[in-house]
């Protein structure tokens, strides 16, 4: 890999990390305001951005799929909360999502270190 390719991959990995951090923050806000459509859109934009960045790194595919699965589980729990009067415990799905995001972030840092 040339120096310019390594530099470009590092830049993309940094952008992915920034998107992961913004995503985490907005998911936290979404949990506080589960019916706010603007927060759902913002979180969705982060997912779209991350999907684009991850496509550069096939080695991140498994970690990315785990983030997507955990994202779905949490948003499905939020949807169920809005559809029923029953309280839903979203702490476990939220923690699982945060753990998946942390694993993906660690892999991004490895990409940067190896570039």
End-to-end separation in angstroms reads 9 Å
- Indicate the multimeric state: single chain
Give the overall average pLDDT. Answer: 92
* Low-confidence runs of at least 5 consecutive residues: none
| Beta-strand content estimate | under 5%
Radius of gyration: 15 Å
What does this structure look like?
The chain is mainly alpha-helical and 115 residues long. The protein is built from 4 helices and no strands. Helix 1 runs antiparallel to helix 2, helix 1 packs antiparallel against helix 4 and helix 3 packs antiparallel against helix 4.
Search tags:
single chain; 115 residues; mainly alpha; elongated
Topology:
Layout: H1 3-32, H2 37-54, H3 61-83, H4 91-114
Helix pairs in contact: 1-2, 1-4, 3-4
Brief sketch in words of this structure:
The protein has 115 residues and is mainly α. 83% of the residues lie in helices and 0% in strands. It has helices at 3-32, 37-54, 61-83, 91-114.
